[in-house]
Amino acid sequence: xxxxxxxxxxxxxxxxxxxxxxxxxxxxxxxxxxxxxxxxxxxxxxxxxxxxxxxxxxxxxxxxxxxxxxxxxxxxxxxxxxxxxxxxxxxxxxxxxxxxxxxxxxxxxxxxxxxxxxxxxxxxxxxxxxxxxxxxxxxxxxxxxxxxxxxxxxxxxxxxxxxxxxxxxxxxxxxxxxxxxxxxxxxxxxxxxxxxxxxxxxxxxxxxxxxxxxxxxxxxxxxxxxxxxxxxxxxxxxxxxxxxxxxxxxxxxxxxxxxxxxxxxxxxxxxxxxxxxxxxxxxxxxxxxxxxxxxxxxxxxxxxxxxxxxxxxxxxxxxxxxxxxxxxxxxxxxxxxxxxxxxxxxxxxxxxxxxxxxxxxxxxxxxxxxxxxxxxxxxxxxxxxxxxxxxxxxxxxxxxxxxxxxxxxxxxxxxxxxxxx
Length: 421
Hints:
- The radius of gyration is 31 Å and the shape is extended.
- It is built from ten helices and 19 strands.
- Helix 6 crosses helix 7 and helix 6 crosses helix 8.
- By secondary structure, it is α+β, with helices and mostly antiparallel strands.
- A hairpin with a 2-residue loop joins strand 13 and strand 14.
């Protein structure tokens, strides 16, 4: 029996996917539920499992865009399992980017078979003499005046000697590299990367995006983490990081400034009474933005656990479309890569995104004295069509206040209860 395997729908509104990589070769025997391909949608990379055991015939090439429901391979379920084949799913280890699955030995064998042996020796390159590339005394003087190296000049004199005329005609390099590698490579962008690019351009072109900045003294959070992080990790199995402080500060600020937790829907402004925080995560296929649902109901432990779970799934390529759908506000942390300051781009259709940056010890004035504290610049990019300057600045100030007074504003003056110690 021949089974037609069709592309399943990876999520609502997705009509097309791209074959990112075949994990098997044409004619292989595959086991039921074995991952046979990776497919890219405009939101995530997903694995395609075999629906039955048998011999596979591929009907699409890597890089092909195929519609949901289209046949991408055939599985002959009547085919016998090859003797000696392990039950463990085979992995695709060979081949180049174009999908060639032959190994090096096979390639070498083919080249040997296809190369005729004529018995003729390859012609020797022209022999060089002591004069090859050598400059005459007059040419040396001219080249020295031009600050040019004789090795960059091709001599026309006897045996390749550089003559005075060669030196006179030589044009000095105007900064053009010489002798270095000038190659380039071209590779097709994945559907996910193309969609990210489209959304970023869309955000720049369709929103009235502005960015406001502030700075945060991270000393109070450093002190809390230093005092409680070991006990927190021992009890809950996750680290007490910065994301829980920032997420809860965002929840508080969004309650104070609900316009930032809004979106434009046609001619209406849609404001949410819940907070779904999208967190930007760098995955193997590019930027992923999984969502922490109902962050307003989560504790420090709840947020840290959810951040860890989503980050691991994103980096291992297991994140689903549903886990990245929605979100009412986004937090991105460029500081993990060393960014000191940036203007994050809004994640449409959201209206605001908070950018975290690296923490650097800097001297600041405290009560009339200069002290050194760990400082972080924060940035809020917002859609000025529905968020006024007063609201955006007030929102970021509320973030700053909560982070600089976390015990009072985020923990209700009861640290152990907030951390569930």
